[in-house]
Amino acid sequence: MIRLRQKFFAARAALALAGVVVAGEIFAETPAGMIAIPAGAYVPLVRTPKDPAQIAVAAFLLDALPITNAGFLAFVTANPKWRRSEVSPLFADSSYLENWTADLEPGPTAPPLAPVVRVSWFAARAYARWTGKRLPTTAEWELAAAAGYTRPDGKNDEALNRDLYAWLARPVPAIQPDVTTAKPDFHGARGLHGLVWEWVDDFNTAMVTGESRADSGLERDLFCGAGSVGAKDTTDYAAFMRLALRSSLKANNTTTALGFRCAQNLPASPKL
């Protein structure tokens, strides 16, 4: 029995060396450039009495860095219909990649390692699919972004909060900084706070969740005017800023400080 247990743990350790362990579970090898976010629960900032108190989020993979201009250049090179001069106005407004010099030349205002901005949700989703990934959901993004620099829960991380609110107070820079300059958080993600805003897959359901979307009697206009009603934490100014941004967007919109990163499901390896 002891020998069997030794074999079990030896095999488990070998798998762990080839993959990643999240909350005690062994998963397949993490793709380069991605990190594993452990399963958890997302508490919506605003909800109605009909909505669940929290949303369970399975473990998933997330890009450690936002997508860069260099990465997006590779995408538009391979997919001409997403180039600035070719994209349909249905899928991107007139400001799409406006900071690039030309279709295939980001230029001096869009350095290769700076996060790509002025991309629409349609373009971000197309990029994600091109790489075999997807955009993270709001619940996934917020769960990942809840981590601090040195702890899984960053709510009381003074250093993180100081950096976050300093970033919110600064004007958008004409040239975004290199993505690698962002400090890594507890999970290894960089730039979830402090670089650019990021698209999520379900951005257009930001103001209502769960059963409330099917409530024909819901006065949806009240959500913007009274956004703090029923809020989980009225002191979380940054979360309200994200909520306000997401609820104001249309899928073809582009802005000076809105980029994205990709996610993937994280399938578990067969248990021993």
Short description:
With 272 residues, the protein is of the alpha+beta class.
Question: Would you mind describing this structure in some detail?
Answer:
This protein is α+β, with helices and mostly antiparallel strands and 272 residues long. The chain has a single domain (36-265), classed as paralog of FGE (formylglycine-generating enzyme) (Alpha-Beta Complex), CATH 3.90.1580.10. 27% of the residues lie in helices and 10% in strands. The strands form four sheets. It has a three-stranded antiparallel sheet with strand order 3-6-9. The protein is globular. The two termini are 16 Å apart. The model is unreliable at 1-26 and 207-231 (pLDDT under 50).
